[in-house]
Design brief:
- The protein is an alpha/beta fold and 453 residues long.
- The strands form 4 sheets. Strands 12-13-17-14-15-16 form a 6-stranded mixed beta sheet. A 4-stranded mixed beta sheet has the order 3-2-1-4, with helices on one face.
- Strand 6, helix 5 and strand 7 form a beta-alpha-beta unit.
- Helix 11 crosses helix 12.
- The longest helix is centred in the middle third of the chain and has 20 residues.
- The protein is globular, with a radius of gyration of 23 Å.
- The two termini are 29 Å apart.
Amino acid sequence: MESGYRVGAYTSPSVRSLGEMFRVGGQEATEAEVEGVLAAVKAGMEAGGLRPSYFEVVTAGAFKFFRDAGVDVAILEAGLGAARDATNVLDAGALDLGVVTGVGMEHVGALGGSIEEIARAKSGVFKEGKVGVVGRQGVAAAEAVLLLEASEKRVKTYRVEAVVDFHVEEGAVVSVGEGREGNEGCQTRVQNGVTFRVPAELAGATFGDGATGNGDPEAGEPWEFDVQLSLVGKHQASNAATAIASAMALKNDSGYDRISKASIVAGMGRATLPGRFQVIDDVRLGGSEGGGEGDGEGDGEGGDGPESKRVLTVVDGAHTRDSARCAAETVRQLFPDSKLAVVIAMASDKDHEGFCSEIQKARPNVVVFTETPIAGGRSRTAGPGALVGAWQVAKMKNRDIDRTWRCRELIQANVQSALAKARHELSGEAASEAAPSVILVTGSLHACEAAST
């Protein structure tokens, strides 16, 4: 968008509303627009004798919405792997770039029982003779499969690890906006300072100046820039590096000539993604005035006296062991001294024990287990009792936690009651004068949606 292109983005699932899945120029579709396009697509499919799944209807709706909006480029996030995903119906002629981020052990039942099989499924985004980007991989075997699949399809491949380096500053910048703006909710933002670096040879070949800092093409200096990134944590900095490599690939190989250094830097500074370490509430609990709960907007319910406690509610859609590790590392990187409550709700087909084992490394003071509908129903919902059992087994096995650590384990019927319980429990904790307390809602993007509603 910063380069002057009209960009559509389709991501799933939503966190606040279906319109969030269909964005053009950074703006969400309205509820009426979504309802209209989905009704038209479903009617057309059924008239043709098809019996599409819900995800197929929504994906086809995204294609129609972007066509009607006249976008220059559409970004499509695969819903489940790639090879057999509804988003992967485009032929090579319609695809400019295929991107695979870090591969982890997720959707094991559908994609295969090993990291190699999952990587092979995700490599389905690579099309014969086109261009591909391979993000940093935590497992060498996954990267080997991706590069082999790309080679066999004669894909020109950008390995992010060789293309974009980065360094994440310690600590967080917490900015407080004024009030709430429509469906954007809480305006408090958490940001990380990140430095990105691109080798001089590639920067010169892409942008034609051979350098950055001083702009001297004879110097052959790398392109290096700093940005306050709203997608926080080292894993999101890695994803941002993948986005930078993707933008360079589009400029080099797919004719997107208006992409520039300035537009990439501006885009990184503006990038947001709902449900990924997103602050949805910033309140004060207790205090000398009122003793209740406020929303930071001067409504008089909460106090801001010396005894009040600032509490940030953060949602993060982590649902695998790897993503739980990232969430735990991020919360303690950004808020090392904060009192922490974690609310967990998950789908039944996830690695609950592995997930809990990683979250325990954040040393929460309180954990509240609950449940939420998954994809609109409860057939795939994990009951809180099963999550408690997984937590306790993980705790017995976990050698990476201090045995003196104590954490209260509670159960609530739904995400909203779990949030209320977490706030109540934190109100009884001795708060740090400098650090806010934090409630982390995690385990599923559906849990994030329930917390944000």
